Amino acid sequence: MKKIVHLFFLVPFIVNALNLQDWISLYVGGTSGQLVAYGNVGLLILGSFLIIKLKGSPLGTPGTWAVFFAVHYSLSILASILYNNPANFGYTLVNIVFYFSFLLYLKRLVDLSFIQTYFTIVFSIASICLIFLWNMQLDLDYFSSDISWGLDRASGLYGDANNACLVSIISYVFLKFTDFGNLPFKSLIKLILTLLISYSVILTFSTTGYLVFVFVVILCNYKYLSKRNILASMFALPLLYLIIINLTWLTAGLNLNERQQSKIVNFENIFSFKFDQIDNSGRFEHIDNVIGKLYENPFFGHGFDFGLNHLTHNTYLNIWLESGIIGLLVLIVVLAIYFSRAIKVEKKTKYFSLAILFAVSIFMLSLQTVINQPYIMVVLTYVGVLIDKGLIKKNDERFS
């Protein structure tokens, strides 16, 4: 029975993480895609009922998201009613079901080493699919369009290059911290997967992604951050810096189109401190369009989907627009709790958690589809469970 219960959680996760419902809708039909989405929710609810009576550890760190959801949704619903802003609660409920179901699952039933490997495989598949779709010039958003001119950026399974880049970076982090046990040729397999995932990040041409990936690679290779290696790197860093600030010249022979070149120039400008020359892809204009609304009601917001409908491309701003400054502050407090607790655990868990948290937190500045994505919330829940486990282990060692 237990093996079957695992499927009630693992199947919905892979379906959601690989965005299969959208691809099924595209090839089979919208009704089929909806049935898949409803099926996911049904499996998770059924699985939750089957394990809810099992003994589990306290909610702890991942439980802080429940506080955020309670505050954010309460204020958003109130604002939607007061300002007569229509709201679509369907997708929101899917996210909530995923979060609470996996909170129960990870706290009660699952072997964390198994789920680490499972998540690594799922996200690695997503990164490899990005490369295949790029080579086939397939894009979810341009499926019915004439793209004989060629795609500018790879968006993988998600129809959004930045979203795809975040998934590839998460895939890289999971891969670096997963052991794979006694798998034959595991070192070679990990090397090949690392190269493929890194290539998938490059194909997204995401300025935010490139910047995040540099720091995530450093965090994931913390074992090499000894005093001796840091001192030795002082001689290599100037060379690396020269490469970065001359990327335009170095990539001149790659036949990149205008938009791809602009992304390379963006990344180069960040490290050249030419911030006034960075192309923000119209994000500042989107913010300018809603700043007046923000000033109209900064404390309680305008209700569900308000930020999403105005395409702010900023999760923090979305939360502020929807549930006011109170909702935003609660979100910041939740992230602060995660970061503060992550730095207190042993090194492997600490750097894994910090790499995930850093990637998600920075991408929320340029993406509005982060914490409203069920698979991202599952990852954050898993990180919270690992942090709590690390804190318990540390306290046990201190008092033993």
UniProtKB/TrEMBL annotation:
Locations listed in the record: Membrane
InterPro entries, per database record: O-antigen_ligase-rel_domated, WaaL-like
Key words, A-Z: Ligase, Membrane, Transmembrane, Transmembrane helix
Occurrences of domain O-antigen ligase-related (ranges): 193-332
Membrane topology: Multi-pass membrane protein
Parts of the chain that traverse the membrane: 33-52, 64-83, 89-106, 118-136, 191-218, 230-252, 319-339, 351-369, 375-392
Any one GO molecular function term: ligase activity
Top-level division of the source organism's lineage: Bacteria
Pfam families: Wzy_C
Protein name: O-antigen ligase family protein
